[in-house]
Amino acid sequence: MLHNIPLLKKLYTLSLILSSVVLTSSAQQKQDSTTKNNARVGAYIDSAKQRDLIDVIVKLFHISSSGDQRQEAKKISLSVVPSVSYSLTTGFQADLTGNAGFYTTSDHHENYSEITGDLTYDTKDQKISVFRSEVWFGDNQYKLVTDTRWERFPEDTYGLGTTSTVAKANHLDFKYVRSYFTIYKKIGTDLYAGAGYDLDYHYGISQGGNADSTLSDYSRYGFRPASISSGINVSLLFDNRRNPINPINGGYVSIIYRDNPIFMGSDNSWQSLQFDLRRYIRLSESNNNILALWGLFWFTHGNVPYLDLPGTAEDMFNNSGRGYIQGRFTGRNMLYVESEYRFGITSNGLLGAVVFANAESVSEYPSNDFSKIAPALGTGLRVKMNKHSNTNICIDYAVGINKSNGIFLNLGEIF
User: Fold this and answer.
1) Residue 160 counted as domain residue
2) What DSSP character marks residue 349?
3) Inside any domain, residue 339
4) N or C: which end of the chain has fewer CB within 10 A?
5) d(CA 364, CA 4)
6) What's the predicted TM-score (pTM) here?
7) Is 398:374 a contact under the CB 8 Å cutoff?
8) What are the angstrom distances between the C-alpha of 73 and each of 76, 126, 138?
C-alpha cells in the first residue's frame, strides 16, 4: 500500500504541476495540432534552413554539389551514427545507432513518424539489438507503436528500493526477448485509444550474489532461471507534438494498463499501470529554446517477475534517470520527474546545449513504502545530425547521489 508520507506528498505535488502544465494552454495546443506543414509553426525557426553535421562534412571535404541540394527534404531523413564510447551501463562499447524520420503521405497532413534501431557490443559482453517505431497514418487517424529487441544483458542489480546501496551489487546474466505492438485510433482532437500485445521473455538467468556476501534481494524476491510475461495492453493517448524526435511545443499524455494472465502464457498473473506526462514550452519567439518537463509514474500489482519491475532507465527508450546506471533503483512502484532546458549555442543551429535535473523514487521491499528520493543533475552538448528530421546527437554528463556519475549518449532528444 502507498502511505501518506511527506515524500509522497512532494512527488504528488510535482505530478499535479506537470499534469496541469500538460493540459493547459488548450487554445495554443489546438493551433499546433491543426497545422498542416512546416509553415504551420509560424515564427518557429525551421531547422531545414540551418546547418547540420552533414553540411559540415560536405564543406570540409569539398564534396561537390549544385547549390544547396539539401535545402529540400527527401522522403526519408536518415541519420546513422557509428561510435565507440563509454557509459555506466555498458563500459566501453561499439555502437551503431540510426533513426529514420518520415511522413507517410506526400501532403504531410500527419505527424512525423520515426523508426529507430540500435546495435551494440561492449566490454561487459552485452549484445543488444533494438528496433522501435512510432508511425502515423491517414491524417493522424491511426498510430502504430512497436518495440522489438533481443539482448544478452549481463548487468549489476542493487536490490529493491531507493535505499539500496552499491555494496549489495549482484551480477546478473540473462538473455532477453521483447515484442510490443500497439495500434491507436483517433477518438478526438489529438486524443487516441489503443490496444495491443506485450511479451517479455527473460531466460538463461544466473546471479553472482551480493558483493558483501549477504542474501540478494533477487533471492528474497524469488529467483527464477527464466520468466515469461505475456499479455494485452489498453491505453489512452494525448499527443499534439508535431515531431517526437525533437519537439518544439505541445504535450504528451500516455496512460497504459497492462494485464498478463496465465492463460496467455505468463508464468504468473500480474498487472501494471503507467502514466507518462510530457510538456514542451517554447520560452521566446526569437529562438527555439525549450523548457521540457517529464513525469513517469509506474505501478504494479501481482507477482511481477523481478526483471519486469519498474526501475531506472527501464522506460521504452531506456532514458530515465541520467546520472545512474540502468537498473540502479528497482521496485514494485516508481515515481519519476525530470526537467530540461534546451538552448542553442550557434545561430546556424549546428550546436546546442542542455541543463537538466531529475528525481526518482522506487518503493521499498517488502513494505512497498516510498522512503527516499534519488536526485541527479547534469548538462550536455547537442550536435545537429540531420536538419530535416531535427535529429541531434546528444552527449550528456550527469551526477547523482553516492558519487554516481557518467556520460550518456543518445540519437534524438532524451524525451
Assistant:
1) yes
2) S
3) yes
4) N
5) 15
6) 0.85
7) no
8) 8, 36, 21
